[in-house]
Amino acid sequence: MTHFLDIHTTPTADLRHIIDDARRMKDARHGLPKGTPDADQPLANHMVALIFEKPSTRTRVSFDVGVRQMGGQTMVLSGADMQLGHGETIADTARVLSRYVDMIMIRTFEEATLHEMAEHATVPVINGLTNRTHPCQIMADIMTFEEHRGPIKGRKVVWSGDGNNVFASFAHAAKQFDFDLVFSGPPPLDPEAALDGLYTIERNPEKAVQGADLVVTDTWVSMHDPASARERRHNQLRGYQVTDALMDHANADALFMHCLPAHRDDEVTSSVMDGPHSVIFDEAENRLHAQKAIMRYCLTA
Ligand code: CP
Ligand code: NVA
């Protein structure tokens, strides 16, 4: 049984296999209505639980649609409505769910919750975002880059903004997929120390994006950050907004990515989001295809 918990803990060859499989599965359904079943139905007769302890649009809908296309059935569970939110342990929840469903996707707060779920579940567990990581997102992002620009190996990726959970999964991916990652943000919002060595720092965003093949940002206030931090973070991050002027310092064919949801004209201007560098909606679409390949990997690896 194989979980998909993180990019750095998944073998490199398996990550490559997932991206290639996602591409193949996407091509196979080109132009079909979204509800058309996939030809091979790898999740036929399978039940998949999708647990959300935080809000979601993309993760929720893309997993739900993906499971259905693959022939399975889903149940979407809110953490707050489960006994999980009322004192039942993660371990017991994992053991119980494993008797009902064939796979579990969980979006949660603490990384420890994900790992406890995986340790005690007897079915595959998939990480749908924690306070520290968002591996499914970055698998979709790698797929998106390669669709537009070919292999990401040896390319320069620049992150401008908060050193958050999405950045962390980019850092893990930089090592696995062998690209250069530059972090550009203010010191109080540096990535966690465990990621040291996976990226370099350039505090000046204009210098950072020179030679960039991909510029990425994310919200300045994540779901796990206290709302009270909003004003301070906006002051700290204002200089790291991705603008047309900043993109002019990157390579002429640089891509722009954002996992969404975006706060238009905070971390990125609307003109960049809707401009020629942006592939944000391809990224969103590729969540579906990448996660279908991840689920197939979990069932068959
Ligand atoms: N990018 C992403 O995970 O979006 P949701 O929070 O809408 O799932
Ligand atoms: N960093 C964001 C990503 C949302 C998909 C958050 O954790 O809220």
UniProtKB/TrEMBL annotation:
Question: Which pathway is it part of?
Answer: Amino-acid biosynthesis; L-arginine biosynthesis; L-arginine from L-ornithine and carbamoyl phosphate: step 1/3
Q: Where in the cell is it found?
A: Cytoplasm
Q: Which UniProt keywords apply?
A: Cytoplasm, Transferase
Q: Which GO annotations describe the biological process of this protein?
A: citrulline biosynthetic process; L-arginine biosynthetic process via ornithine
Ranges for domain Aspartate/ornithine carbamoyltransferase Asp/Orn-binding: 153-297
**What is one GO cellular-component annotation here?**
cytoplasm
UniProt-listed InterPro entries:
Asp/Orn_carbamoyltranf_P-bd (IPR006132), Asp/Orn_carbamoylTrfase (IPR006130), Asp/Orn_carbamoylTrfase_sf (IPR036901), Asp_carbamoyltransf_Asp/Orn-bd (IPR006131), Orn/put_carbamltrans (IPR002292), OTCase_ArgI (IPR024904)
Catalytic activity reads: carbamoyl phosphate + L-ornithine = L-citrulline + phosphate + H(+)
Chain sites annotated for binding carbamoyl phosphate: S56, T57, R58, T59, Q83, R107, H134, P135, C136, Q137, C259, L260, R287
- Positions bound to L-ornithine: N165, D218, S222, M223
- Its EC number(s): 2.1.3.3
State its role. Reversibly catalyzes the transfer of the carbamoyl group from carbamoyl phosphate (CP) to the N(epsilon) atom of ornithine (ORN) to produce L-citrulline.
- Name of the protein: Ornithine carbamoyltransferase
Protein species of origin: Loktanella atrilutea
